[in-house]
Predict the structure.
Amino acid sequence: MKVIIDAANVAHYQKGENSKAKLKNITLAVKALEQGHHDFLIIADASLRHNIDDKDTFVRLVEDGIIDEVPIGNVADHYILDLAYDENAKILSNDKFRDFMSEFPDINSMRIPFSIKDNELILGKTKKPKKVKNLLQNICDEILNELERKRWVVYKGKETTKFTPLNVAKQAILILDQSERDDMSSKIEGIFSKLPMFDKVMEMVDDVETSVPYVIFVLVHPKDYKAAVKDAGNISVTVADRLRLVHKPLIAVRNDLFIKPGYFGLNIVLTDEVEDIPPFNIEIQTNTYDEVFIKKNSRNIASTIAGRLGSWKFPFVSVKPNMILEKPGEFEIYLEKNSKKKKKDKSKDKDKKKK
């Protein structure tokens, strides 16, 4: 570990009334950290030299660069917290830094408490860091933003309605009915013309007109997934009957990490071919602390992206640790476009090798 010794707090531990802070406490802290093979830095506020029991030795240690004093004009506690955050270091201190909780909400995971007994400093345990709020949504946002930069049309709307099968059907009917009035076909054609697969879609127009007219992506919280799937057939029939569609729309239920429990959103697109492979593979690089949590939710990330892309197939999501990303909540996104052609070319190469 990297550890910053809060020299003032350590030195004032178990001092008697009206007695001086103890330099020996700092030496015991150094001894404990050295035994644990930890890297450490001793930071003292400027006033400590006037309250320490062995001032001459303390000043000599400061002059020799063994103890660092907080630069003039800085609040000692804030300086130590700021340095620990920047260096991803722990702080050896029994100070709970309550005045700085709003700026550094995860102080308890940064702080190592201690006690001194029988001439030995005993290191306590830090608390586990809190999960970064909305981490999964932040990851999905970054993926969708990257897809937009690549000129893929994605559904970014986050308007939601209370989830019931009837509300899903009503909302779909309202959207489709309004879309028909606004000439949805020409609008969607304009959208699809930006996509690489547009020409292929246009070749399928005859098939599209005689098959399923729309795919309705019902975006729900994972807790509501089973209920939405159970009623997908009834939703499809209700929408088709009310709009007098020749063919029923296809209902695709997707777990969506932007949706709160008990609510839903809709992404409705004209029927496209069902892709044999997803449009993109997604690689998420993250810190070792968040790695397991993100892996557990990788399928929900894939489902969210598929629903917002209007893709039938889920992208493949891989999660890898990155040593450079040290702090909870840090991540990087890399997208790799899938290509049928590439896969076919690879299979041809394999056949050639076999021959």
Residues 44 and 69 are 5 Å apart (CA to CA). Residues 186-199, 204-210, 341-355 have pLDDT under 50 and may be disordered. The first strand starts at residue 2 and ends at 6.
